[in-house]
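Bug report (template v2)

What were you trying to do?
Predict the complex of my protein with coenzyme A.

What happened?
Run completed; filing so the output is reviewed.

Input:
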Amino acid sequence: MPFSADGTQTMDLKNLLVTAADGVTTITINRPDKLNALNQATLAELDHVVGTTAQDPSTRVIVITGQGQKAFVAGADIKEINHLSPLKAHQFSQYGQQVMRRIERLDKPVIAMVNGFALGGGLELALACHLRLASDKAQLGLPEVKLGILPGFGGTQRLTRLIGRGQALSMMLTGEPVDAPTAASMGLVNQTVGAEALLETTMRLAAQLAQSAPAAMAGILEAAVLGEDMDLTSALSLETARFALACASEDMKEGTQAFLDKRAPQFTGN
Ligand code: COA
């Protein structure tokens, strides 16, 4: 399937499905017979689609999910890992980290719709997303230790930051997955819903965010994501800069005026 969000670049996608409607672009990892495992080709496609979607002003929100009933993504492709030389392993990890970071650094919200197994690189992908909604059937874990390796797409850092070192080390050192309700209780997912309601719940959230003010969301994302790596004084400065920038938008005028007029705001993205 050719894909071009901005009309200037195309790539023939073999492992992803991409659909766009009403400001929401949905990226579906499409290797269900391999439980959507991330091989290098899929990773490259994801990198490309995320890059082009980032430039597409009509995309306000991105949803990432896996094809089929069983898996979000069951990890990096173990068949490929099995053959990696140390040098290639280094490149593979760095590239995976780069793709995850690109997702995390997007200035529009990315929702992981975790419809089943999110293991290894699959959980690392979900962790790079800004919000995670999970089916109550989902299982989430970083089982790399059972393969004699460790998470290499940012999992050691993002899981630890999200749920704390104690819980993260327990998950990573044992490699045991947690079920969705446990994941919710740890803060690993934002919400758990019945499998049959996952799509509707996710799309309702995506639609809500797609109506929101893009400059405000971009500011929140940058301050929260970059601020995590900063000392508090610098992070607060960043917050101030983004606050002031949002105040330069038409949407700021509309949002505040709508409150004063006691009506719902109509944000335009300007
Ligand atoms: N990489 C490559 N192939 C994978 C994969 C992965 N991470 N996860 C699943 N697959 C493939 C299986 O090899 C199998 O392919 P085959 O039909 O050609 O043999 C297919 O997907 C279905 O998986 P299967 O193991 O038969 O399903 P299951 O229901 O018995 O078990 C899991 C499901 C998720 C428990 C199991 O597939 C699993 O443990 N996967 C690996 C998880 C992992 O370690 N991820 C981290 C990788 S770094």
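What did the reviewer find?
The chain has a mean pLDDT of 95. The first strand starts at residue 2 and ends at 3.
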